[in-house]
Design brief:
Length: 258
């Protein structure tokens, strides 16, 4: 009998926790806190159970960082029929991934020389001009975890258009955001890195944290993101509200599926 997706996920998590992929050392981590392997296992669960990820899928990881999402996927995607393609502007992340995933020939990591004033100010290409390195209608599952939380509105817009271009019609976009309803985000003085208090002067749907670099964290108004996704992708998104704002969704940030 063919194993179910849940059984495959259980096996993949056991392989991951058994040490299949080594985490980077602390000085190579630039994507925030948290245990690398636990996060990898947690997100693989979301991809399979919420997003419907299959072992034969072609996956695009937008802003792959240090390979936290790739680590779980390496233990799940079929080496013969599955494919993974990750890109990120930060060269040391890509160098780490190429070394850490050398035993996974169906995995590919690429540096995208895209400007981000917080992560890669040397970048020579604007995110609004960047073309994802994959052909039209070639991707089953596109991931953007904790990436749209560090991009300006126009950049999110451009990336959503690119995601729609590369995704197959039945493909899935699994993204995370920090979303708020009403006129402004809830105040979070106990989480100073997420205490959004400054609206963007031209874009009141986009809020920053006072006295921090604007792209260190960005919150968006839910209705603006829903409209943007509908307009750029022609898809109707589903929002699973994040725990950061008291939501009942699976994750700390808001999960947005389209
Ligand atoms: C908080 S980290 C999340 C990394 C990874 N997605 C994860 O969940 O582990 C944000 C990532 O977005 C990347 N990033 C920033 N601007 C980007 C852009 N324009 N295109 C792609 N990735 C970008 C950063 O380099 C960084 O790796």
């Amino acid at each position: 009998m063919m194993p179910t997706r849940t059984e495959l996920l259980k096996r993949a998590r056991a392989v991951l926790k058994g040490g299949a992929v080594k985490p980077p050392s602390a000085e190579d981590v630039f994507v925030g806190d948290g245990d690398f392997i636990s996060i990898a296992a947690e997100f693989l669960g979301y991809f399979v159970e919420i997003g419907g990820l299959e072992r034969h899928h072609t996956v695009l990881d937008i802003g792959c960082g240090i390979g936290r999402m790739a680590a779980g996927l390496a233990c799940y995607l079929d080496p013969l029929t599955g494919r993974y393609h990750g890109f990120d502007p930060v060269p040391k992340g890509i160098a780490w991934c190429n070394q850490a995933f050398a035993a996974y020939p169906h995995f590919r990591f690429e540096q995208a020389d895209v400007f981000n004033e917080h992560y890669w100010p040397q970048g020579r290409v604007l995110a609004t001009d960047y073309h994802f390195p994959l052909p039209d209608w070639s991707v089953d599952f596109a991931i953007a975890t904790s990436v749209f939380t560090h991009l300006y509105y126009e950049e999110v817009e451009a990336y959503l258009k690119e995601a729609a271009r590369v995704l197959k019609p039945e493909g899935v976009l699994f993204s995370t955001f920090l979303l708020f309803d009403g006129e402004r985000p809830p105040r979070r003085p106990n989480l100073p890195h997420l205490d959004f208090s400054e609206p963007h002067p031209q874009r009141p749907v986009m809020w920053h944290v006072k006295d921090k670099p604007p792209l260190s964290a960005v919150a968006y108004k839910t209705s603006a993101v829903i409209d943007l996704i509908k307009r750029t992708t022609g898809r109707t998104p589903k929002v699973l509200p994040g725990r950061w704002r008291g939501g009942a969704g699976p994750f700390f940030q808001d999960v947005v599926l389209a």
